[in-house]
Amino acid sequence: MLEVARAITEARCRLNHTLMFVAFDHEENGAMGSNFFVDHYLIPDELKRARARFQGAFILDGIMNYNDIPNTQDLPMDYAESLPGFQYFVNNTGNRGNFLAMISRNEMDNHLSRKLMDAWQDLGNHQYKLFNLAVDMGNTIPDVSVIQKHLNFLNSDHATFWYHNSSSHFPDSLNAVLLTDTGPFRGKMKECYHSKCDDLTVITPEKLQFAKKTADALTATLVELTSATGAGRQIQASWIIVALHALVLFYAAKLLRYV
């Protein structure tokens, strides 16, 4: 998150839309941080009082765990049931953890997911893949049976934007996509997720390049969404800064960027 902010700032982009970077805490405790942000700041202060138009949020929840070794990737049951084509692809390519998953809603979040996918493809280096896992969920809070069926699609701060607690006086659902390396379903994180062995020894050059491509794609996407002018249209995140941020910052809990 901070690398994207650095890249845009140092390029002296002139943004025509507001860009905000936010780090949430307590995601594991009912998404307390993002809930408070959305319900007590974003909606009342920006969307209602200032009448701002919200384009969307990109939620980063683990973006560095890359593993191209066969049989290192598992998938939650609801991924397989909701997106059998994706399950087939992962199985057919050796169950490798060589992709970043982008969780979005069909139609609702398309303008965010498509722009990020375009930016990702433009960067080349197809060793690192991005998959859009678009689920059929609408703009109203689903019933219990739907939530149970899609539990792992709702297990992060993006769900706070999709289905916020202010619907009684602000009925609009807020667009958001989640970027995740699937956390405890990949490689060493199957045993080290939220454990002491999730330390700096897990960092590899491939993982840093994986994180770098994510930062580059996000930077290009934000430049597009904010209608930025100036040098910003040519910027990319630098390798050395991403490496330093990986060592120091990528272990921060949950990161948000929204336009």
Structural summary, described in words:
With 259 residues, the protein is of the alpha/beta class. The chain is 39% helix and 13% strand. The chain is built from ten helices and six strands; from the N terminus they run αβαβααβαβααβαααβ. It has helices at 2-10, 32-49, 77-82, 84-92, 110-122, 144-149, 158-162, 189-192, 205-225, 239-248; strands at residues 20-24, 57-60, 99-105, 129-135, 176-180, 254-258. Strands 1-6-2-5-3-4 form a six-stranded mixed sheet, with helices on both faces. Helix 5 links the parallel strand 3 (99-105) and strand 4 (129-135). Helix 1 (2-10) crosses helix 9, helix 5 crosses helix 9 (205-225) and helix 9 (205-225) crosses helix 10 (239-248). The protein is globular. Residues 232-259 have low confidence and may be disordered.
Give the distance, in angstroms, between the N- and C-terminal Cα atoms. Answer: 13 Å
The percent of residues in helical segments reads 25-40%
SS-based class:
alpha/beta
Q: Which word captures the global form?
A: globular
> In percent terms, what proportion of residues is strand?
5-15%
Reading the helices and strands in chain order gives HEHEHHEHEHHEHHHE
- The radius of gyration computed from the alpha-carbon positions, rounded to a whole number of angstroms, is 18 Å
| Mean pLDDT over the residues | 83
Low-confidence stretches: 232-259
Helical stretch tally: 10
Biggest sheet: strand arrangement: 1-6-2-5-3-4
- What's the total count of β strands? 6
Largest sheet: 6 strands, mixed
